[in-house]
Amino acid sequence: MARLSLQDVRDLAQRVLRRHGFSEPYVQAIAETMVAGERDECASHGIYRLLGCIATLKAGKVSADAEPQVVDQAPSVVRVDAGGGFAQVPFRAGLPLLVKKARQQGIAILAINNCVHFSALWAEMEALTAEGLVALACTPSHAWVAPAGGRKPVFGTNPIAFGWPRPDGLPFIFDFATSAVARGEIELHRRAGKAIPEGWGIDAEGRPTTCAEEALNGAMLTFGGHKGSALAAMVELLAGPLIGDMTSAESIAFDAGTKSAPFGGELIIAIDPGRILGPDADQHLARAEALFEAIQGQGARLPSQRRYEARERTQRDGVEIPDALYAELKALLD
Question: Which of 30, 176, 298, 324 is deepest in the core (most CB within 10 A)?
Fold first, then answer.
């Protein structure tokens, strides 16, 4: 294993992205996403994702310098046409207007269209909770996941994320795929030659498998059976047809076998508690703190608590990257 500081991770990501022609807004935003993944010990969304970013670029499935177009669509609606770029830059472009509209109207949505998405959503939730807003986001991906009772992929991993600001601490955030696990986790198992747990995937014939390669070539499974399947369908609708963008099946058809990152849309909802509750906001938000205390008081863990604990370690000790992966990443500089 190679040990890198978080600054080392940032420098490597930026060097690779510049080497392959990404404009500076993308260099900065994508690198910070990867640093955040490594910082929070989410390896499946960390520096490993550089490989997919560069492969997607070489396949002609992402723009390295697209300039997002922000549209003030309606009193509570912001639209951003990403122009085929990675999602981080259009999110940053639409964020100020989204925040403004949420504070004016109490609730607002940001619809990002024509973007390429590879990152976790919790980073976007943190940007909104830092503004004192409650937030919800979802996005389809490629059709990798079979519906409950089915054998063929229809859904993407279709993550859902939620963020709740807290007055005296880090926000309450959850971010999870509606599949049993993120696809990157299966890919990391494949790279390491490790078996995957039962319930993560099926082979091309629809049979349960613990082989990562077979699951990647067959179908992933939703979490919670029919419940996860219904939530996955909801994400397809909310961040697909509702905002005029692709479903996961349409995204993978657009991919045309290049194995690039998913192409499509993202829906983000921002809610201002102060606008809804008025002068009683602090009183009601304090009741939320009682809920969190009731959870943690009996030894249960809040979502994101593990990530927050990881931050203390990695900022002090750095992170470990498998030697083979580190060599592949450095080769991208050749």
Answer: 30
Residue 20 contacts residue 54 (beta carbons within 8 Å)? yes
SS3 state of residue 219: strand
pLDDT value of residue 51: 95
Cα 320 to Cα 47: distance, rounded to the nearest angstrom: 11
CATH of domain 66-179+222-302: 3.30.1370.60
CATH pick for 1-58+304-334 out of 1.10.3470.10, 1.10.1530.10, 3.30.160.70, 1.20.1050.40? 1.10.1530.10
Per-position b or e across 255-290, b if 16+ CB within 10 A of its CB: beeeebbbbbbbbbbbbbbbeeeeeeeeeebeebee
Residue 271 phi, psi dihedral angles, 5° rounding: -125, 135
Is the per-residue pLDDT at 9 higher than 90? Answer: yes
Where in the sequence numbering do the catalytic residues fall? 44-45, 185
Q: How confident is the model at residue 233 (pLDDT cuts 50, 70, 90)?
A: very high
Alpha carbon 92 to chain centroid distance?
14
Pairwise CA distance, residues 256 & 49, whole Å = 20
